[in-house]
Amino acid sequence: MSKLRLGGIQIGYDDEGDGPVLVLLHGYPFNRSQWRDQLTAFSKSHRVIAPDLRGHGETDVTATTIQGMAQDVAELMTALDVNTAIIGGLSMGGYVALSFYRRFPERVTALVLADTRASADTDTARQNRAVQAERALREGMQGIADEMVPKLLGPETVAKKPEVVQRLRQMMVSTNPKGAESALKAMATREDQIAFLSQIQTPTFIVVGRDDAITPVVDSELMHREIIGSQLEVIEHSGHVSNLEQPDEFNVRLREFLSSL
Ligand code: MLT
C-alpha cells in the first residue's frame, strides 16, 4: 500500500510484483481493494498497479471526469517510471480504461474490459445518477449500499457467499459521499465510445458475469463485435463484479489471455 502526491492531490495505490505491468482500475463506488485476489495471483508474474481512482479509497476527492481519471492514471504511471502497461478496468474502471486508450494508445499493450460498456448514459441513467448523488450527500452511503448490493451481485453470490456481500458492502460504505457524487457526475458526462471501438488496435480481453444486471452480456457482445480480434469470456454464476464473485474463474481466463500476449 502506497501513497504519493501528484498535481496537488494524494493518490493511494498498490504496486506489487515484477514483470509486464498490469494496471487494474476499480468500479464505482468501490476502491482498489476490489482487486485483492488479482493482486495476489498476478503479482507472481506481473507488476500489478491498482490505484484508487479520484474520489475513492485513499485518493483525494475533487470534481473530476472519466478523462480526468484516465489522466491521473497516466500521471501515476509516469511517476512510477512505467511507460506502457496492460490497462484493465471493471465497470467505471472500464470507462476509464477505454478513455485512457483513446488518449494514450501508445502507452497501452493490451486492454481488459470487465463488466463494462462503451455507450454513454441514457437520459434516464443520468437522472438516476443525480438522484443517487443527492441521496449520498444527504444520507451517506449506507442506504445506497443496501439498495445496490443485490443489483450488483448475482443471485448465487447473494445466496451463497456472505463474505463477498460483506466485502462489497464494506467498500461501498467506506466511500466518501462527496467522492461518490463526483464519480456519478463523471460517469453521467462520459463520452460515448461505441464509434471508437473499431479503431482499437490492441489485444482486448472482454469479460462479463452471466447475470450482470448493470452492464449486461449484450453490452460486452457489442464491444466484442466492434473491437477487431477481441476475446469475450462470460463467467457463470456471477453478477456485475465478476473478479470478486468468481475470482478463480476470472483469474484463470485472464491468465490465459495474458499468456497469449
Ligand atoms: C460500476 O460498477 O462502476 C458502476 O455501477 C457503473 C455504472 O454505474 O455505470
Concise description?
By secondary structure, the chain is an alpha/beta fold.
Which secondary structure elements does this structure contain, and how are they paired or packed?
Layout: E1 2-6, E2 9-16, E3 21-25, H1 36-42, E4 47-51, H2 66-79, E5 85-90, H3 92-103, E6 108-114, H4 123-139, H5 142-152, H6 155-160, H7 162-173, H8 177-188, E7 204-209, H9 217-226, E8 231-235, H10 242-245, H11 247-259
Parallel strand pairs: 3-4, 3-5, 5-6, 6-7, 7-8
Antiparallel strand pairs: 1-2, 2-4
Helix pairs in contact: 2-3, 4-8, 5-7
Bound molecules: D-malate (MLT).
Throw out a few tags for this protein.
261 residues; alpha/beta; binds D-malate
Can you walk me through this structure?
The chain has 261 residues and is of the alpha/beta class. Helix content is 45%, strand content 18%. Strand 5 (85-90), helix 3 (92-103) and strand 6 (108-114) form a beta-alpha-beta unit. Helix 2 (66-79) crosses helix 3. The longest helix is centred in the middle third of the chain and has 17 residues, at 123-139. The chain starts with a strand and ends with a helix. The site of D-malate has 6 residues, from loops.
Structural class: alpha/beta
Inertia-based shape:
globular
Q: How far is the first residue's CA from the last residue's CA?
A: 28 Å
Strand percentage lies at: 15-25%
